[in-house]
Amino acid sequence: MKKFYSFILMAAVAIGAMADDFVTDGTGNVYTFNSLSQIEGTGVTMQDDGSYLVSANFTIAEGDVLQLVNNDVIKMANGVQVTVNGDADFAPADTAVVTRDAEGSNPKGFWMLGENGNANLKNVTFEYVGIVFGGVNSSLHADNCTFTLHNGKSSSTGAIAFNASCDNNIIENCYFIENTVNAIGCGATNPVGIIIRNNLFWHNTTSNRNKPQINMTCAGDYDMHITGNDVIGGQFTLSGGIGVSNMMGLGHTGTLYIEDNYIADNRYGITTIGSIDAVIKNNVMIDNCYETNPANGGSCISVYDSSSESNIYIEGNWMEGGFWGITIVTGAPNVNLGKVEDPTAEDYNPGNNTFVNNGNGGVLYDLYNNGTNTVWAQGNTWNVAEQTEENIEEVIFHQVDDPSKGLVIFMPAHQESSDVEEVNAAQQDNNLYYNLMGVPAEAPAAPGIYIHNGKKVLVK
Q: What's the longest Cα–Cα distance across the chain?
């Protein structure tokens, strides 16, 4: 009983402390960290070096704006949380930095929770600090920002974590580097409409949790575009590349597009879970095989749908060095890897997927159909010396191997040598395009990434 009363007392003290946090008046004012440092009780003070220390929680009320000014350096103390129920104008002309105040500090970062509060993030480096966004009628736009070493204290969902369903979000031209949790994520009941494009994801989920670097929920009316990103893993055994799910069986009319990404050195490349309509096209996936047990992962592309309602269109992908090329784990999703018989048909798909050295236990597995539906897989280049039916049968598992599984229709295969050479040439260009650390040579400059011998390298 004494322990119970002690708990109540501690809770009351915590609530009282929260009640004393500074809250703006919600009359439409714009607050900078400089102006906050001049208001008693905000917990914001200017330091001798011109930086701003945030030593206490504060809240920007709905209707007000919190603004980062060019060259601002914000240092957040251990456990500190800044709540923004209005707008976040974090778009300095050139640069600003948000970081912790001292080694060992674990600030909770920024919680942008206003139902009508938008967040504009540009040219900002966030170190050890993350963003939780929950604007139901709002949107987040992040451009040319760096998120690195996020401590996971604000959320284990991601360096940018969505905790409410919302649409029209854009994350582009950003760097996500060595965050302890995944880079971008949302809850299982919070589908998000978003464009994630032209970003670098580098060695995220350093805590080696069972989460991919990009971990999203796709459902409702929202479309989701994950395009043109470089998703380079740290060879962690639990962290995958791109994972999109609808694990709660939510209704959906939107479509997921995963296109033109380079994905390497993760536990797996791309996985979809649950009922999803998706287009997976023109991605390059190499050595996504750092699962310790091939029965639990290591696929270039994995489709899992016990509801058997998914429609997955797969075209033009390069899949190399996985334990598996493509795995259909369970159920009867509609998976179209190539359907070339009628170019005028709505479900026409030229295929053009290429499989190279995917296998485990001394056996090559280009396609493993553990589902019960027929899979169309015509027009592809399989990992065999000659694209004959007899040869290809050796790298596909389906009804021929187990009568309870669905049939794979894979003939005709892709036979045009000129196209194969073109794909190979593209792959060679891609290998030259990345240095040994996997960082793209043409990526824009960002803190911690420097030119070395004509290529970008990560320097700690």
A: 80
Q: What is the pLDDT of residue 135?
A: 81
Q: What digits encode the pLDDT tens for the residues 396-418? A: 999 999 999 999 999 999 986 54
Name the token pair of 64: 């007000």
Secondary structure of 211-237 in the HEC alphabet?
Answer: CCCEEEECCECCCEEEECCEEECCCCC
Which residue from 190, 155, 194, 196 is spatially nearest to 176, judged by alpha carbons?
A: 196
Q: Where are the alpha helices (DSSP H) in 239-301?
A: none
CB 139 within 8 A of CB 164: no
Q: What is the pLDDT of residue 457?
A: 38
pLDDT digit string (tens) for 269-282? 999 999 999 999 99
Q: Where are the alpha helices (DSSP H) in 20-72?
A: 33-37
| Range of lowest pLDDT (130-134, 190-194, 217-221, 404-408) | 217-221
Rounded Cα gap, residues 317 and 297, in angstroms: 19
Cβ atoms 174, 205 nearer than 8 A: no
Record the pTM: 0.87
> Whole-angstrom Cα distance, residue 32 to residue 67?
5
Select from 297, 299, 301, 307 the least CA-distant residue to 274: 307
The three-state secondary structure class of 428 is helix
d(CA 188, CA 452): 41
Rounded to whole angstroms, the Cα distance separating 41 from 112 reads 21
Q: Report how far apart the first and last C-alpha atoms of the chain are (Å, whole number).
A: 52
What is the SS3 assignment for 426? Answer: helix
What is the spatial distance between Cα 346 and Cα 323, in angstroms, rounded to a whole number? 32
pLDDT in tens, 327-346: 999 988 999 999 999 999 99
Residues 6+ apart with CB under 8 A from 260: 227, 228, 281, 282, 283
- Is residue 203 within 8 A of residue 182, CB to CB? The reply is no
Alpha-carbon gap, residue 308 to 409, rounded angstroms: 19
Burial tier of 343 (Cβ tally within 10 Å: 0-12, 13-18, 19+): exposed
Residue 2: left if φ>0, alpha if ψ -120 to 50, beta else—which one?
alpha
* 3-state secondary structure (DSSP) of residue 165: coil
Residues in the chain: 460
* Two structure tokens written together for 342: 């009628």
Region class of 331: left (phi > 0), else alpha (psi between -120 and 50), else beta:
left
**pLDDT for the residue numbered 417:** 54
Tokens of 336: 């179209």
∠ Cα 144 146 151 (to 5°): 155
Sole residue written with tokens 């970003």: 199
